[in-house]
Amino acid sequence: MKLTLHHINLSTEKVEAMDAFYRDVMQLDRAESDLPALKNDEDVYTGDVAFLEDGHVHLHVARKDVEAGFRTGQIVNPVSHGHIAYRCDDLEAFKAHLEAQNVAYSDWGESAVKGWHQIYFYDPDGNVIEVHQVVD
Q1: Domain boundaries, given as residue ranges, for the chain
Q2: What CATH number has the domain spanning 3-134?
Q3: Where is the VOC domain (predicted)?
Q4: How much is the CA Rg of the chain, to the nearest whole Å?
Q5: Is the pTM of this model over 0.90?
Q6: Can you give the pLDDT of all 136 residues of the chain as single tens digits?
Q7: N or C: which end of the chain has fewer CB within 10 A?
Q8: Cβ neighbours of residue 94 under 8 Å, at least 6 residues apart?
Protein backbone atom coordinates (compact mmCIF):
# COMPACT_ATOMS: atom_id res chain seq x y z
CA MET A 1 0.00 0.00 0.00
CA LYS A 2 1.74 3.08 -1.27
CA LEU A 3 0.82 6.58 -0.08
CA THR A 4 1.61 9.74 -2.03
CA LEU A 5 0.85 13.31 -0.99
CA HIS A 6 -2.12 14.41 -3.08
CA HIS A 7 -3.47 17.67 -1.66
CA ILE A 8 -3.64 20.05 1.24
CA ASN A 9 -7.09 21.39 2.09
CA LEU A 10 -7.51 24.80 3.70
CA SER A 11 -10.94 25.57 5.18
CA THR A 12 -11.95 29.23 5.04
CA GLU A 13 -14.85 31.67 4.87
CA LYS A 14 -12.91 33.56 2.16
CA VAL A 15 -12.63 31.13 -0.77
CA GLU A 16 -12.42 33.86 -3.42
CA ALA A 17 -9.75 35.91 -1.58
CA MET A 18 -7.73 32.79 -0.76
CA ASP A 19 -7.97 31.59 -4.37
CA ALA A 20 -6.65 34.95 -5.60
CA PHE A 21 -3.88 35.02 -3.00
CA TYR A 22 -2.56 31.56 -3.86
CA ARG A 23 -2.73 32.27 -7.60
CA ASP A 24 -1.37 35.85 -7.54
CA VAL A 25 1.05 35.84 -4.62
CA MET A 26 2.08 32.18 -4.41
CA GLN A 27 1.89 31.76 -8.22
CA LEU A 28 -0.06 28.51 -8.19
CA ASP A 29 -2.11 27.53 -11.24
CA ARG A 30 -5.74 26.51 -11.35
CA ALA A 31 -5.77 22.71 -11.24
CA GLU A 32 -6.67 21.27 -14.63
CA SER A 33 -6.45 17.53 -13.99
CA ASP A 34 -7.36 15.00 -11.32
CA LEU A 35 -10.17 17.20 -10.04
CA PRO A 36 -12.61 15.62 -7.59
CA ALA A 37 -16.21 15.34 -8.77
CA LEU A 38 -17.92 16.97 -5.79
CA LYS A 39 -21.42 15.62 -5.34
CA ASN A 40 -22.79 18.90 -3.87
CA ASP A 41 -25.18 16.89 -1.72
CA GLU A 42 -26.90 19.18 0.79
CA ASP A 43 -26.75 16.33 3.34
CA VAL A 44 -22.96 16.17 3.00
CA TYR A 45 -21.23 19.33 1.65
CA THR A 46 -22.18 22.08 -0.78
CA GLY A 47 -19.44 24.65 -0.20
CA ASP A 48 -17.38 26.44 -2.82
CA VAL A 49 -13.94 24.97 -3.51
CA ALA A 50 -11.02 26.42 -5.45
CA PHE A 51 -8.64 23.83 -6.90
CA LEU A 52 -5.01 24.92 -7.37
CA GLU A 53 -1.74 23.13 -8.05
CA ASP A 54 1.99 23.60 -8.26
CA GLY A 55 2.41 20.96 -10.96
CA HIS A 56 2.74 18.12 -8.45
CA VAL A 57 0.50 18.66 -5.42
CA HIS A 58 -2.96 20.18 -5.28
CA LEU A 59 -4.24 22.82 -2.88
CA HIS A 60 -7.99 22.70 -2.23
CA VAL A 61 -9.41 25.88 -0.70
CA ALA A 62 -12.82 24.92 0.65
CA ARG A 63 -15.63 26.83 2.27
CA LYS A 64 -15.52 26.05 6.01
CA ASP A 65 -18.42 23.87 7.18
CA VAL A 66 -18.43 22.97 10.87
CA GLU A 67 -21.72 21.05 10.51
CA ALA A 68 -20.62 18.48 7.87
CA GLY A 69 -19.70 15.86 10.46
CA PHE A 70 -23.06 16.19 12.20
CA ARG A 71 -25.01 15.92 8.92
CA THR A 72 -23.14 12.79 7.85
CA GLY A 73 -22.89 11.12 11.26
CA GLN A 74 -19.09 11.07 11.01
CA ILE A 75 -16.71 11.77 13.88
CA VAL A 76 -14.00 13.44 11.78
CA ASN A 77 -15.04 16.56 9.85
CA PRO A 78 -12.52 17.34 7.07
CA VAL A 79 -13.94 20.79 6.23
CA SER A 80 -14.05 22.37 9.67
CA HIS A 81 -10.33 23.17 9.89
CA GLY A 82 -8.78 21.65 6.78
CA HIS A 83 -6.67 18.55 6.28
CA ILE A 84 -3.73 16.99 4.48
CA ALA A 85 -4.57 14.24 1.98
CA TYR A 86 -2.73 11.22 0.66
CA ARG A 87 -3.70 8.98 -2.23
CA CYS A 88 -3.46 5.24 -1.60
CA ASP A 89 -3.36 2.30 -3.98
CA ASP A 90 -4.99 -0.16 -1.50
CA LEU A 91 -7.34 1.53 0.94
CA GLU A 92 -8.57 -1.71 2.51
CA ALA A 93 -4.99 -2.67 3.40
CA PHE A 94 -4.40 0.81 4.81
CA LYS A 95 -7.56 0.62 6.93
CA ALA A 96 -6.34 -2.73 8.30
CA HIS A 97 -3.00 -1.06 9.04
CA LEU A 98 -4.75 1.74 10.97
CA GLU A 99 -6.78 -0.80 12.93
CA ALA A 100 -3.60 -2.72 13.81
CA GLN A 101 -2.13 0.58 15.05
CA ASN A 102 -5.30 1.32 17.08
CA VAL A 103 -6.04 4.47 15.04
CA ALA A 104 -9.76 5.24 14.78
CA TYR A 105 -11.01 6.63 11.48
CA SER A 106 -14.19 7.89 9.84
CA ASP A 107 -15.05 6.13 6.58
CA TRP A 108 -16.81 8.65 4.32
CA GLY A 109 -16.85 6.25 1.38
CA GLU A 110 -17.83 8.16 -1.76
CA SER A 111 -20.36 10.36 0.04
CA ALA A 112 -18.60 13.66 -0.80
CA VAL A 113 -16.59 12.90 -3.96
CA LYS A 114 -17.72 10.59 -6.75
CA GLY A 115 -14.99 8.08 -7.54
CA TRP A 116 -12.90 8.70 -4.42
CA HIS A 117 -13.30 6.42 -1.36
CA GLN A 118 -12.17 8.67 1.51
CA ILE A 119 -11.29 8.00 5.13
CA TYR A 120 -10.25 10.58 7.73
CA PHE A 121 -8.42 10.33 11.03
CA TYR A 122 -6.43 12.47 13.46
CA ASP A 123 -2.69 12.66 14.02
CA PRO A 124 -1.51 12.87 17.67
CA ASP A 125 -1.92 16.67 17.65
CA GLY A 126 -5.47 16.61 16.28
CA ASN A 127 -4.70 17.49 12.66
CA VAL A 128 -7.04 15.79 10.19
CA ILE A 129 -5.53 13.40 7.65
CA GLU A 130 -7.38 12.09 4.62
CA VAL A 131 -6.40 8.93 2.78
CA HIS A 132 -8.33 8.15 -0.37
CA GLN A 133 -8.31 5.68 -3.22
CA VAL A 134 -9.68 6.33 -6.69
CA VAL A 135 -12.40 3.76 -7.41
CA ASP A 136 -14.13 2.79 -10.65
Answers
A1: 3-134
A2: 3.10.180.10
A3: 4-134
A4: 15
A5: no
A6: 889 999 998 988 999 998 998 899 788 899 988 767 665 656 666 678 899 999 999 999 988 988 888 888 888 888 888 899 999 999 999 999 999 999 999 999 887 788 899 999 998 778 899 999 999 7
A7: C
A8: 1, 3, 88, 119, 131
